Amino acid sequence: MNEPVCFIDTESDGKLRVQQSALQILQQIQQPVVVVAVVGLYRTGKSYLMNCLAGKQKGFALGSTVESKTKGIWMWCLPHPTKSETTLVLLDTEGLGDIDKGDQRHDTNIFCLAVLLSSTLIYNSQGMINSKAVEELQKCFTFPFPTTPENMSCLEGLDSADIKFLKATDNLCKFVFHDNNIKRLKDGYTVTGKVLGHLAKMYVDTISSGAVPCVENAAIAMAKIENEAAVKEGLEVYQSEMEKLKNSFPLELKDLTSKHQHVKSMATQTFMKRSFRDTDGKNLKSLEEKISKLFDGYQCQNKQASKRRSEDLLSSLSAPMMEKLNQGFYARPGGYDLFCKDLEDVKKKFNSQANKEFMAEKVLEEFLKQKSVDSKAILQADMQLTEKEKKIKEEKERAALLKQEIIFKEEKQRQLEQKFEAERQSNEERMRQMKKMEEEMRLQRKEAEQAMDRKLREQAALLEHSFKEKTDRMRQEMDDFRRQSAAAELFRANQMAMMENRRIMEEMYAMRMQEMTLTPENKGRGTRKKKK
């Protein structure tokens, strides 16, 4: 994509909707996706961050006023800069907390969609992420939450596996380009662009209906949609290849069966690439049943083609004999032997030229049965033969017909054995595909378990690191408190000492004044004044 497009916006009635043009873009993306969504208060630079991730100066709209510029959710799909065969999907969301909008539910819905659709959720904040920011997040949604000590702020009260808050644009780009994981569902199923579009449609429809979106319910609905589509795609692959093969009909049954097995394997692989949560093999079985019905039809068409070619060949080879028969050439003494000789020549030529036609014996058997009527009539009209010779000829003819019938039955038995062998191979292939599917599901579950284990270890390490930080911080606070307490005690002691010194000085001054009042000189002066 050269530029972002609107992914999810609001209809006139206030309900969210997914833009069809955006879905069409996602439908074309069969690669795994890394989905990065940004949320936060309006006018905090979210679009700028997304442009940085896209490596572009322009792209997502940037506003120059306090008015929120981005409306709804906008999408930009780009090749992932460090992961081959992977698409980076950037989602820029409408700013939260716009008082002019005055719709807390709308903010909650946008935030909820960002969480559900993303493999990494970025909460953009101006300044530190404080308790107020966490409270605002909790109002919108509750979800698990891990952190890393190097470049992330630990949010108290939130546990998580997928959402991280970074302090710098460089850290954000480094994380997305090198450390970020591909979007997966709960059981480890890899999300492609096509699947992401389906998820967005289901989540938006659920929210618009007033219900609460659920990842598990979305996965169940996704499984139904994807498995039905997988069966359809598998059938299309099978039909496409078999229709090309029709131009080569008729084929020997073993060749047709071999081609059927090869094309069926292609169809099964196509199904397995798209199927999702077909744990009981129900949809794979449905595909096989549909393919089996189609193969019966192709077998019938191949059979009819072989029959037509055999009939055309036999008609061409028997044309001279039929012309003699119509002209009455064999209605004379010795005519029966001439007819039998011509008929045998036709059989030899047909068997040599139609040896690869699996319907040849059946067509020849029907032809000989038809000609047996003419043969009997010629035999009865041949006056050269005695009655005994006629009976011997009839016995030979019956024996020849019986022999041909035996040959046809043997050919039919051979075809049945080939069909049985084809079914056996088909069952073996089915078991192989089922084992392969089970192994892939096991690996997916193992990968999901390993990812969860890594996240749990990371969370434990982060909790330990956070606990250590808290312990160190508390120890520092206690040391600071002790120092402050000691300083306060010293200050109080100094104050008390100063007060005590002042009191002593005041007392000494009072005593000094009193002494001065009671000296002899002062006493004499006082007496003389009284005598006067």
UniProtKB/TrEMBL annotation:
<dbReference type="InterPro" id="IPR037684">
    <property type="entry name" value="GBP_C"/>
</dbReference>
<dbReference type="Pfam" id="PF02841">
    <property type="entry name" value="GBP_C"/>
</dbReference>
<dbReference type="GO" id="GO:0005525">
    <property type="term" value="F:GTP binding"/>
</dbReference>
<dbReference type="GO" id="GO:0045087">
    <property type="term" value="P:innate immune response"/>
</dbReference>
<keyword id="KW-0547">Nucleotide-binding</keyword>
<dbReference type="InterPro" id="IPR027417">
    <property type="entry name" value="P-loop_NTPase"/>
</dbReference>
<keyword id="KW-0399">Innate immunity</keyword>
<feature type="coiled-coil region">
    <location>
        <begin position="376"/>
        <end position="458"/>
    </location>
</feature>
<feature type="domain" description="GB1/RHD3-type G">
    <location>
        <begin position="30"/>
        <end position="128"/>
    </location>
</feature>
<dbReference type="InterPro" id="IPR003191">
    <property type="entry name" value="Guanylate-bd/ATL_C"/>
</dbReference>
<keyword id="KW-0175">Coiled coil</keyword>
<comment type="similarity">
    <text>Belongs to the TRAFAC class dynamin-like GTPase superfamily. GB1/RHD3 GTPase family.</text>
</comment>
<keyword id="KW-0378">Hydrolase</keyword>
<dbReference type="InterPro" id="IPR036543">
    <property type="entry name" value="Guanylate-bd_C_sf"/>
</dbReference>
<keyword id="KW-0391">Immunity</keyword>
<keyword id="KW-0342">GTP-binding</keyword>
<dbReference type="InterPro" id="IPR030386">
    <property type="entry name" value="G_GB1_RHD3_dom"/>
</dbReference>
<protein>
    <submittedName>
        <fullName>Guanylate-binding 1-like protein</fullName>
    </submittedName>
</protein>
<dbReference type="InterPro" id="IPR015894">
    <property type="entry name" value="Guanylate-bd_N"/>
</dbReference>
<dbReference type="GO" id="GO:0003924">
    <property type="term" value="F:GTPase activity"/>
</dbReference>
<dbReference type="Pfam" id="PF02263">
    <property type="entry name" value="GBP"/>
</dbReference>
